Amino acid sequence: MDEQTEELRDLFVETTGEETVTADQSEDRGDLGDAVSAEEAETRIRELVGRMRERYAFQSGFDDGELVQVVTGFYADEDDAEIADALGTDAESVLRARLDLHLVRERDREAPLPMDELRELIVDDVALEERADRLDADVETVERYSRVIDAERRATRANHRFTDEFAELLTDADLRDSHAADARESGLEEAAEDIETNTQL
């Protein structure tokens, strides 16, 4: 091997503690093998959605395929309007679908009423109209934030199992399959640039 290749190999050994590039590449392939592809993730998310539909009374009229899009859009940091545009529906329908799936955003909790008090009323099984009277709020607003609390309670009772699985699947599919190769390539490019700079010096 030439001098530059030897320097690249030496840098690799110093960085990884491995004697050969082949061993490290094999390990990387093993790590990626444990991840799921985007197609596998979508299939497994659809299965989770189906299990949730069997277990809970969904309020949205979305089919399983549309609910999968809601999940993937949520974890892609798309807002409800963006997800709605992709589905050809409105943001309120997406909100209902999200809450069916236990997907609560931080801003969902930003209510013009005391959420702790509303939660206590829900736990005490107080009727919707009475909740509105006690909180001096309109029924529509109380109903909206009651749905948020109901979604959080369902998620808690399920030990956040569904949302955790959604997140894990999409993290594996998006980060590992899409970005891991780029990260390794970038790291090798930086190492090669360092060697080239040192060689020039």
UniProtKB/TrEMBL annotation:
Q: Where is the composition biased (Acidic residues)?
A: 188-201
State the residue spans of region: Disordered.
1-38, 178-201
- Ranges of compositional bias, category Basic and acidic residues: 1-12, 178-187
What is the protein name stated in its UniProt record? Conditioned medium-induced protein 4
